Amino acid sequence: MQLTRLFFDLHLAIPVAIPLILLPGWRSSRYRRVVPVLLFVSMFLGAATTLLSWRTGQLPIVDLSHLLPFPFVLTLDRLSSLFVFLICAVTAATTVFSVAYIERHYGTGQQAWIWTFLPLFVLSMVLVVTAASAFAFLFGWELMTVFSAALVAADGDSPERRHNLLIYLLMMHAGAAAVAASFFLFLPYTHGLTFTQIRAAGGTLPGRTAIAIYLLAFLGFSTKAGVIPLHLWLPRTHPIAPSPVSALMSGVMLKTAVYGLVRFGFDFLPHPAAWWGYLVLLAGVVSSVLGILYALAERDLKRLLAYSSVENIGIIYLGLGAALIFQAYQAPMWASLALVAALAHTVNHALFKSVLFMGAGSVSTTTHTLNLDELGGLFARMPYTGATLLVACCSIAGLPLFNGFVSEWLTFRSFLAGATLPSPVAQIILPLAAGVLALVGGLAAACFMGLFGTAFLGRPRGVAAKSAGEVPFGMCLGTGVLALACVAVGVYPALLLGPLSLVAASLIPSGNVAQELSLLPRVLPILTTCVVGILLLAMAIPRATRVTAIWACGLPTLSPRMQYTPTVFSKPLRSVFAAVYRPNRKIEVLPADQPYFPVAVSYRSERTTSFEQSLYRPAVDAIVAAANQVRRLHTGNVQMYLLYIFLTLVSLLALVKVLR
Amino acid sequence: MTTAAANVLQYLLLVLGAPLLRALIARVKAVIQRRQGTNLWRPYADLLKLFRKEDLVPPDSSPLFRFAPMMLAASTFVAAALVPTVNQSALLAFAGDFIVLVYVLALGRFFMGLGALDGSSSFAGMGASREAMISALAEAPLLLGLIAVAILAGQGNIVEIVRWTLSQNFFDVSAVHAVAFAALAMVAIAETGRMPVDNPTTHLELTMIHEAMVLEYSGPSLALIEWAQAVKLTVVLSLLIGLFAPWGMAANLTLAGLALGLGAYLLKLVVLAIVIAVLESSIAKLRMYMVPEFLGIATALGALAVVFTALLRR
Amino acid sequence: MVLVDLAASKAMGSAAVLLFLTVLMLAAAKRMSTSIVAFALQSAVLAAQVLAVAHIHRSTESYVIGGLVILIKVLGIPYALFRLVDKLQAPRDVKLSLSPVYSVFITAGLIFLSFTAVHTYVQELRVSEDVLAAAVALILSGAFLMVSHGKALMQIIALLVLENGIFLAALITTFGMPMIIEIGVFFDLIMGVLLMGVFAFRIRDTFEHLDVSKLRRLRG
Amino acid sequence: MVLLLPLLIPVLGAAVVLFFRRGTRTALLIGAAEIAALSWLMFATYRHGSITFGRYLRADHLTTVFLASLCLIFALVLVYSSGYLRHLPPERFSSLRWFYALLFLFLFTMLASYLSSNLGLLWIFMEGTTLASALLVGFYETEGAVEAGWKYLVVCTVGLAFALFGTIALYLAAVKSGVAGGSALDWTSLVTAAPQLSIMKNLVKLAFVFLIVGYGTKVGFVPLHSWLPDAHAEAPSPISAMLSAALLNCAMYALLRFDAIAVRAIGPGFSHHLLLLFGGVSILIAGLLMIVQRDLKRLFAYSSVEHMGIIATGIGLGGPLGLYGALLHTFNHSLAKSVLFFAAGNVREKLGTLRIDRISGMIRMLPFTSGALIFGGLAIVGMPPFALFVSEFAILSGAFSQARYLVAVILLVGLTLAFGALLFHFLHMLGGEPKDTPESRKVAGTELAVIGACAVVLLIFGVHVPVQFQKVVEGAMAVLQQ
Q1: Is residue C200 part of a domain?
Q2: Looking only at Cα atoms, what is the longest distance across chain B?
């Protein structure tokens, strides 16, 4: 216990100390060298804490309430320790990656800046998931926004970056307001806002309050999670952050929203109504389908990944929604299965999405571009990074032998179980949702087949890609570890499902899913051995290889530009879903006067549907218009001002007279 | 012990006999088209020849180019171990969850696409892109159809579903089964690249899908691909048989039972082969952009099947 | 002595009417000097009022206050204002935002309003209705003058009228606040007028005019 | 004596300073003495709870809360101005010595209004603050300054005239309900006698309406706030800080005193609802207006209006949480706002303009000042770990725990609006290409020290409210609620 407590304190203290260390040696690289080590140690300690407390079952509690007028408590129950472990693991890998990456990409000042705020950012996330009082939670929640924004701002400055930052901070603040409100709404029914008090009140809330709380929490957390249509900030912010930071934001920060939703849905409000679940399910469907479709249409590597994050959050929401529905229909076993599915996908997405973002970082390190149409043939040039990214792509495509499959299978399974519910609505909706999940899975497979196939395979389409080389060892290590984790979970799911079932049990006591969860751990190892065995056999086939030019219909050679580009690759699917994109296509034939003897033909096709234009812009305009109206009252004429005072006085007097 | 032996035998039968089915379809088509078809054992000869030939690899392609066919073969052969054919069991029966089956097949397809893109030929790229589209759109109807059946059977394991179907009376085939079968059949056509979605015998690049994907492959790699394709076709057909018409499948491991099961199975296969042949020689291939509509119909049917499952139980 | 009592009671009685007259006069005034005189008269009436109260209640404090009123409001401030006017060499006319006819009508309306307004409080406070009404009328019309006149000096006067009203209200309801408060208030009044004078000069120096309604650079 | 000293020093100081041509050092010395006296006073009050001197001077915990911020802000302003007004031409009025003399008088009037136990005196000194600060507002004799000064003077004087009327009405009510005329304006006796006032219900209501309009004008409630942005924008930056961080609190203090009486006399319903009304309107309108501001200091001025609204809301909510939050918020807001105004001063000094659309690329031109802006901005929008997060948390919980959902929503919306506005303008100013290069990048040591001090205090109060301060605030709440 003492050890656990010590580890936990150190884990929390080190990130705070780091800026103080950096302060004296802002410019000297010697100080900066220390930071990653410290951060790594802190992460290690954090992971150790979770493991220790997990094993002993004792919760290390940090209580700073005596410092502040409001209770500030941190603790590690099952759910928290899962997320803390996730944060620590991913961050540790990211740190290893960042050392070389940041060294190569940034000047002294920027490096110091990033190394100052990275630990604080991680700390804020830890605060959020370990908080055991509303004050602590909101404290961490706001800090998370500030520090992530600081890190995003580290990566240069331009009008449209500023615009993105503005959108990010605004939406985060609005979301935070909603979350705060959802916490405060408990207040009339408790004396304080520690989680224990909230839990105590949660069971006895009047229905309308519970609904209000849940809706506000849903809005607030969905904003952070980037669920469509609240996703506006996500594809704008993640791509413009330094790659390790993008990895953390996409891999971990989004998950704090999932954490919050689980806390509210399963811990604070024990009696969900079915329609809450359907709401979450709907959000999941919309953002998973639209997310992956937008991802398909993207050409910028990191924007593509950002949109795929939206999709994966959608998948997690599908699981959560199912869990809530089962909870509402008193089917605890299936509820906990769906919850396990959602949490499993949370963990998996954290793993492979961090790999993908860091891989994108590696790509930009060597090729200095993220435009997929200029890449190609990188696998031969950077084999380690290529391999790790291949693993990540397979995982995100939900292929068996990789971890993505595990969570998708669980989600399918829970949807299938929907047929056993008493309500016909659930019987129809849940299995159909499985169909949606299947569609999303197929689209994701296509998307990432295109990504890897065009960026890493084939022949380089540009000079940048041709001259690419392998990135330094540290970066490969950082990504490699997580990729290995993906494979490990994919081959031996018990690693993941064991702990998750305990977490689910801690939230839904009566749900026992051991039997449901036992299938995959039995199947996948054997499946793997079979596949690998057959692979070995196939490799054993004696064969002579000869390198020859490819079939070119008799032409002398095919230039690399004649390969299928990512744009073209996704073309069929894009034309199938043209209704979603409403593309505006432009074909220009030069010279214009003789279209039959073109010198150059240029084709542009861009998406015209955008939530910003159709949803957010009008709202903002309305507010600004209102402000201008009010501004007009402020005529610089002192007589008018006096008039305002008199009128106020008179109207108040009249009011009093009337009310008397 | 005997069960294991029987399972191994039926697995080998499936894997080794698969090329024969393709030959059979080709032969029937030839007959219909008044051509003198090829010898039924021709595919084996081709495979042997290809295995002996050398492997031609495009310049600056990565090792993945040669790895892809192996992955395809591996996944397909594993998938073959999941479906029951003659016996009411399979080599990996316990793992025969239909979601697993679907995704194992997807694994192979994914790598095949990557291999095609690695070939850096524009035809291969085109093939890969179209294959990606079709498989992406086929995923939903496939799973919906399977889910409908699974819901009726109340379990996800294929062998279990088969057993449940056998326990039902032959005549009360529910509407769910009919609709689900329609959906799955359409998907099967798309998945195995037969007419009207794809033409396995075409040589006109612009209409090719699967053939375009494998355009750059030769020698042992091509052999693996062809073999895997054959096995996949057989697996899908056996799945249809198992789910919708398993009658006659050997329940107990007596010699007679097995013989009956084998006979029934082969018979059904032959019937299906003839149906496919007739279809392929009677209807024209769809235009590329008609395929999504085709699959859309399949999806609608699948969804319908699922809805029926809920309605029929009340 | 009887005469004084008579005078006191007369003062008490007739004060209201006189005050209304001054108010109307202010509203109608076209020239700065007129309004200053009107203000002086008003203050004089006020002073009489104070003295009357002092006489009736036999309170020395009130005598002092009355003296102060005469000293400051009747003589001091008007004198200062006159000095200001010719020091500033401002155009002598007051700048009305609307014609005197209207303003007189409105003022009359305000007087009527004030009667209705005080009506409820009169019984409660047991004071003569018309004087209280006069006080309120002073306040209201002061406010009205402020809004309707665009001249710096006029606004000073208007402010003084408003203050007079408050003073009167205090006087007749409470028969004078504690001494120190009154003195403090007077001090503030003097300082305020002084400061406004200073600002009048500054405005004149920086803008070459005294029309505060034209000071509209800061807005929004 | 303890009470008299802090009042005497500034008056004499003002006189003394006028004798020197450029009295910076003298001013600093006097200021130091003053601060020493003040801290002595605060310490004494902290020890004895409440101390009185004669009939008219009194200090209790409530006073201490406000004195603490006043003392701190005054010290900062003094130090900052000593650096800020280095090169000021010795002209007629707008010369250094006059600046310091007026500053001391201004301080004196505010102190006096804090320390006067008699509500009439309170009014007199409040009026005094207007007079003393009007010249400071018009200190630079530019067109804008003169205009702002005039408006400030007229509007506030009129407003306070109504406050006087309110005070008289209250006095009347007290006298009529049998309080001795001499002590009928004395706060302590009024508070004790307040329950009797309930017989003059209507009169008390009338009084409070006039009082809230009167002092509300000084606090800057919308729609009585018209003078506030002009004055803040045109005054020298240290004075803007003084106005926003000290003067508004001073008026709020007066309202607090009267509110306490009104609550005792006629129950919380009336005055609290008025406060909530003004608070809500101020928050929303100010939040909106912040979006469309073009001048940095006007922006901050409107943010002050908004925060006064928040404080008023806290008071109006009452109860332990609301009042606690309000009192804490006055202190925190003063600090954060003075950081912002000092930073604005630097901007003015270095770039010669405060027009937001004319400034860009500051982060590269003036890294320190930009840092200060970001710091103050984060603090003012209530981001942790700064102190305002705590106080706003308190006020919000107050609103929710009383199930006053409308108030809560207004608070949240207003905060978000203000956040968006500040963020929008700051991003525009900090980022982008530098328009013109400043003459000098170096920051005066005094400015650095002052801003640093504010930031440190804000941070400390954000993560730990000192026990002593806590006790004082609780004492103040006790004074108000009993």
Answers
A1: yes
A2: 63
CB contact under 8 A, C213 and A637: yes
pLDDT of residue A26: 64
The CA angle B244-B250-B252, to the nearest 5 degrees, is: 135
Distance CA B181, CA B171 (A): 15
Q: Are the beta carbons of A293 and A330 closer than 8 angstroms?
A: no
What mean pLDDT is predicted for residues A322-337? Answer: 94
State how far Cα A474 lies from the chain centre. Answer: 24
Separation between Cα atoms, residue D243 and residue D265, nearest integer Å: 32
Distance between CA atoms of residues D415 and D409, nearest Å? 10
Residues 96-125 of D with CB under 8 A from C: 118, 120-121, 124
Please report, as a single letter, which amino acid is at residue A590: L
pLDDT tens digit sequence for D374-388: 999 999 999 999 999
How many angstroms separate the CA atoms of A652 and B238, rounded? Answer: 85
What are the residues whose beta carbons fall under 8 Å from the beta carbon of A216, sequence distance 6 or more?
A178, A179, A181, A182, A185
The one-letter amino acid code at A576 reads V
Interchain pair D209, A166: CB under 8 A: no
Chains A and B touch (3+ CB pairs under 8 A): yes
Report yes or no on C220 lying in a domain: no
Q: What's the domain count of chain C?
A: 1
Share of chain B above pLDDT 70, in %: 96
Domain encompassing residue A590 = 581-609
- pLDDT for A49-105, tens place per residue? 999 988 887 788 889 888 888 999 999 999 999 999 999 999 999 999 999 999 899
Q: Which domain holds residue D174?
A: 4-481
Environment class of D25 (CB within 10 Å of its CB; exposed 0-12, middle 13-18, buried 19+): exposed
Amino acid present at D113: S
C-alpha D18 chain-centroid distance? 27
Q: Which domain range does residue C124 map to?
A: 2-89+98-214
Q: Show the 3-state SS of A411-469.
A: HHHHHHHHHHCCCHHHHHHHHHHHHHHHHHHHHHHHHHHHHHHHHCCCCCCCHHHHCCC
Separation of alpha carbons B99 and A376, rounded Å: 33
CA–CA distance, B116 with A563 (Å, rounded to integer): 11
**pLDDT interval class at A605 (50, 70, 90):** confident
The pLDDT of residue A350 is 97
Q: Taking Cα atoms as reference points, which of D104, D63, D45 lies closest to residue D250?
A: D63
Q: Do the bridges between strand A600-606 and strand A584-590 make them parallel or antiparallel, or are there none, so unpaired?
A: antiparallel
Q: Which residues of C fall within a CB distance of 8 Å from A636?
A: 215-219
* pLDDT tens sequence across A403-449: 999 999 999 999 999 988 998 899 999 999 999 999 999 999 999 99
Pairing of strands A545-547, A73-75: unpaired
Tokens 């403090």 belong to which residue? C184
pLDDT at position C183 over 60: yes
- H-assigned helices in D18-177: 24-48, 61-84, 96-115, 119-137, 143-176
| CA–CA min distance A567, chain D (Å) | 33
Q: Apex CA A226: angle with CA A223 and CA A227, to 5°?
A: 90
- Owner of token pair 């892109």: B129
Chain C nearest-CA distance from D401, in A, is 37
- In the chain, the amino acid numbered B45 is A
Domain spans of chain B, in order of start: 2-312
- Could you give the number of structural domains in chain D? 1
- ∠ CA D247-D251-D256 to the nearest 5 degrees? 140
Domain-embedded: residue C114:
yes
Among B4-18, C90-104, D226-240, D242-256, the least confident range = C90-104
CB contacts under 8 A, D 130-149 vs C, are 131, 134-135, 138, 141-144, 146-149
Burial of B5 (0-12, 13-18, 19+ CB in 10 A): exposed
